[in-house]
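Model the whole thing, not chain by chain.
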Amino acid sequence: MSNTIIGHTLVIDGEIVGDESLTILGTVKGKIELNNTLLVDKEGKVEADMIVNKITINGSVTGNIHAHEKVEIQEAGQMVGDIKSPRIFIADGAVFKGQIDMDVD
Amino acid sequence: MNNITVIGPSIFIKGNIEGNEDLSVQGRIEGNISLSNTLYLEESGIVKADVSVKNAVVSGILVGNLEAADSIEITEIGIVVGDLYAPRIVIRDGAKFRGSINMSVYDKFDGETKKIEQPKSKFPTTTTKTPTTTSIIPTTSTTYGRKPVTTPTTPTTPSKTTIPDKKTTFPSKPIEKKVEPLTKTDTVKTSTSFSSSTNNSSTTHQNSSKTSSPAINSKIEQSEADKINRAIKETIGKYSQEGELDDKKKESNPEQKSE
């Protein structure tokens, strides 16, 4: 399965829906719905509400996340918004502002 | 610029995409795409958008207008419905295309300036383009007054130019334009007309005599063009129906989830 990569210089304004893993190096605004892993890489910037299986944040995210499996905010990650996920990992150095709800199915 | 962005086969993007790198689309995109690099629309890719790029290689399905600063290539398996703007356009044998083609890039500006007023007076004033282009533009504009639907600069020509338009049926027009550059006799004649005739009266006389040969060509190719058009209509119809169904599924699902 080929990964979808949204490159550094790319700006997407709208809705992304899919079933495969997605790596964001650029900028995405809008809405993301993914039945797979979402990786926001170091220079990646996301301003969107997300429904994903798993998300790893190394870049900057603004918006609410609903993850079915896990949310990871890595050291370089910055996140503003609410998280709804059964498992959450926030690394030392990560920046987070928002509510967390782990009380999900 | 080594990066290449890949939109995978299961991904559906609805919205605008902008960027300065190559983009390979294997999934679906609806919206506008504007890139300062190359768009590769792969075999599984479906794009329903107005596209503005530097280069475009279409192996998938594109519905919408495509504007390239450099070149457009529709490969053997590519399907395009829409208008093409590019200085260089390749349509490979087997490709399916419906729409118009404009290879003289300045005609796009021509169209814009027409809206404002006279194109001839406007062109020297637009200093953004190199001076060589200004000498080319008047000739290209006269050729455009001869063939397509748009009304040309001079008031005398439209009455004559409408006659060949009436002969040809509507759907064959874009294909006729596409075929035009391939017929060598046609291009030779037009080139001679540029050099010999600067007066409007002389061009109209030549036009009336010239239209006989393209008319015959168009009649022969019309049947083929109709076949292609029908094939494209069928394929596009299938895809659009599928797409609508997909849309409905995808739209209905999130609502259920959110509720």
